[in-house]
Design a protein that fits this description.
- The protein is α+β, with helices and mostly antiparallel strands and 165 residues long.
- The chain has two domains: 42 residues, no CATH class; 99 residues, Sandwich (Immunoglobulin-like), CATH 2.60.40.
- Helices cover 36% and strands 15% of the residues.
- Strands 1-2-4 form a three-stranded mixed beta sheet, with no helix packed on it. A three-stranded antiparallel beta sheet has the order 3-5-6.
- Helix 2 links the parallel strand 1 and strand 2.
- The N and C termini lie close together (11 Å).
- The protein binds 2-acetamido-2-deoxy-beta-D-glucopyranose (3 copies) and copper (II) ion.
- The site of copper (II) ion has 6 residues, from loops.
- Keywords: Disulfide bond, Glycoprotein, Membrane, Signal, Transmembrane, Transmembrane helix.
């Protein structure tokens, strides 16, 4: 009876470890605008459409990469400044990787000339509670470490079998 409870407990731990490892996802890096990069878009809805299409599942720990060749900036602004395309001082070299530090809404504009008015702007929401760690240490576990854990677990299981069954 006691041995069966121990065996079941051990199995539950194995399943939990395997589920956590398989469920761990690496951070995603999104290239803003895909092949267009960060530029004056062909129409004012280009980046809002891109963000809606691509950033629905943006999670804490994911990054945005801005690539550009002409003169542009990346500025994180308030919602009011985003709506008004208000210029703030911000000049950053390309490529620029931005990793939102917390969950919440973000407003990104280019502050050069009238680029923002022409649609070089987008907003998005980072999903995930700040209370949860943004990256899972399990995702950095090598395949070798996974097999080591599995092997150890099965070794322990075999001890249960030989000792009690
Ligand atoms: C942006 O830069 C990254 C890294 O240099 C590259 O992999 C990606 O293809 C570039 N994207 C564009 C749109 O140029
Ligand atoms: C904006 O431009 C993109 C890329 O050329 C195109 O796919 C999209 O249909 C355009 N949207 C509008 C509203 O014109
Ligand atoms: C809105 O933008 C205009 C033009 O950039 C600027 O003069 C004005 O101060 C802005 N208003 C607010 C409330 O930020
Ligand atoms: Cu610009």
């Amino acid at each position: 009876m006691g041995s069966r409870m121990g065996l079941i407990g051990c199995l539950i731990i194995v399943v939990a470890i395997v589920l956590q490892l398989s469920g761990a996802t690496a951070e995603t890096v999104y290239t803003v605008g895909d092949s267009l990069g960060w530029a004056v878009p062909p129409n004012t809805s280009y980046y809002s459409t891109w963000a809606t299409t691509n950033l629905q599942t943006f999670l804490l720990g994911d990054s945005l990469e801005f690539n550009w060749t002409a003169t542009h900036t990346v500025a994180e602004v308030s919602e009011a400044d985003y709506n008004n395309c208000t210029k703030v001082s911000s000049v950053i070299a390309s490529p620029f990787k931005f990793t939102p530090p917390t969950a919440g809404s973000y407003y990104i504009i280019c502050t050069v000339d009238d680029h923002c008015e022409q649609g070089q702007k987008f907003s998005f929401t980072v999903n995930g509670s700040p209370a949860e760690p943004p990256t899972s240490s399990a995702s950095s576990l090598s395949v070798g470490a996974l097999f080591a854990i599995m092997a150890t677990t099965f070794f322990l299981l075999s001890i249960y079998f030989s000792a009690y069954l």
